[in-house]
Specification:
Blueprint lengths: L2 E3 L13 H10 L2 E6 L7 H10 L4 E3 L12 H13 L7 E7 L7 H17 L4 E6 L2 H8 L9 E3 L6 H7 L5 E5 L10 H5 L7 E3 L21 H12 L3 H15 L5
Parallel strand pairs: 1-2, 2-3, 4-5, 5-6, 6-7, 7-8
Protein name: TatD family hydrolase
Organism: Bacteroides oleiciplenus YIT 12058
GO molecular function: DNA nuclease activity; hydrolase activity, acting on ester bonds; metal ion binding
Length: 259
C-alpha cells in the first residue's frame, strides 16, 4: 500500500508525548510522505523541528493561516517572506485561504493576505494549500485572476458542492484534498466525488482534527489516512492499492516531487 498524507499538523502539542510512535504507525500502513502546513509565526520553529527530526519523510510549508489574520497581519507576512528567502526547503505556501466561520471582522485583511501569498507562490514557483471555511465565493474571487497562470495547489479539506468542485477544477493545476469528513454518516461527499476524476484527488488527515470513522472523536493521526483511502476506494469502486497509487502520484505531482 502506498499512501501520502498531504495535510497533517503533527507538530502541534497534541503529539508532543508520542510523535515517534505516531510516525511509526504511519509508516506501518504505507504512508511514504507527510506534508505539514504552517499556521503562523508561533508554529514555525516546532514545525521545522518535527520536519528536521524526520527529514525526507515530513515536509514543511510556510504561510499565514486565515484564522491568524488580524491587525498584525503585515508583521506576520514579513516573517513569511523572511522564511521564503531563507535557505529552508519549503515545499508549498500553506496553509492559506479564508475562514469566515467564526466572524468576518478581518474579511478584507484575509483577502489581502491570500492574494499576497498567491503572488509569492507564483514568484517562488511553489504550490498553494488553500483553507476554505464559509468563504468559497470570496476565495474564488481572489483566485480568479490567476486562472491562466502557473498557479497550482490543493484545495484542502474539501466539503463543498459539485458546482464548487467544478469551479476549483477550472484551475488546471489544482487538486482537491479529501479527509475523514468523507467517512462521516451525514457527509454528501460520496455523491460529489463521483463527479470528480480520481486524478484530481489527494488524501489528507488534517491531524489532529477530523478523525475518520471508525475512530471519530479521538485524536487524528497520519496513519488514519488509510481509513479515508478505504472509503474513497469504495466510492470509486477501485482497489485500495490502485487508489493509493493514483492519489500518491497526484500529491507528488502537486508538490513537484514526481520522478
Amino acid at each position: 500500500m502506498r499512501l501520502i498524507d498531504t495535510h497533517s499538523h503533527l507538530f502541534l502539542e497534541e503529539f508532543s508525548e508520542d510523535l515517534p510512535q505516531v510516525i511509526e504507525r504511519a509508516r506501518a500502513v504505507g504512508v511514504t510522505h507527510i506534508f505539514m502546513p504552517n499556521i503562523d509565526s508561533t508554529t514555525i520553529d516546532v514545525m521545522l523541528s518535527a520536519c528536521d527530526a524526520y527529514k525526507g519523510y515530513c515536509f514543511p510549508m510556510i504561510g499565514l493561516h486565515p484564522t491568524s489574520v488580524n491587525t498584525d497581519y503585515k508583521k506576520e507576512l514579513d516573517i513569511v517572506v523572511r522564511e521564503l528567502e531563507s535557505s529552508r526547503e519549503y515545499v508549498a505556501i500553506g496553509e492559506i485561504g479564508m475562514d469566515l466561520y467564526w466572524d468576518k471582522t478581518f474579511l478584507k485583511e484575509q483577502q489581502i493576505v491570500l492574494d499576497r501569498q498567491v503572488n509569492w507562490a507564483l514568484e517562488y514557483d511553489l504550490p498553494v494549500v488553500i483553507h476554505c471555511r464559509d468563504a468559497f465565493d470570496y476565495i474564488y474571487k481572489v483566485l480568479e485572476p490567476y486562472k491562466n497562470s502557473r498557479l497550482k495547489g490543493i484545495f484542502h479539506s474539501f466539503t463543498g458542492t459539485i458546482e464548487e468542485a467544478a469551479r476549483i477544477l477550472e484551475f488546471p493545476g489544482f487538486s482537491i484534498g479529501i479527509n475523514g469528513v468523507v467517512t462521516f454518516k451525514k457527509s454528501h461527499l460520496p455523491e460529489v466525488l463521483l463527479k470528480i476524476p480520481l486524478e484530481k484527488i489527494v488524501l489528507e488527515t488534517d491531524s489532529p482534527y477530523l478523525t475518520p470513522v471508525p475512530n471519530r472523536g479521538k485524536r487524528n493521526e497520519s496513519a488514519n489516512v488509510k481509513d479515508t483511502l478505504m472509503k474513497v476506494s469504495e466510492i470509486y469502486r477501485m482497489s485500495p492499492e490502485a487508489v493509493g497509487n493514483v492519489t500518491s502520484e497526484n500529491a507528488l505531482k502537486v508538490f513537484g516531487m514526481l520522478k
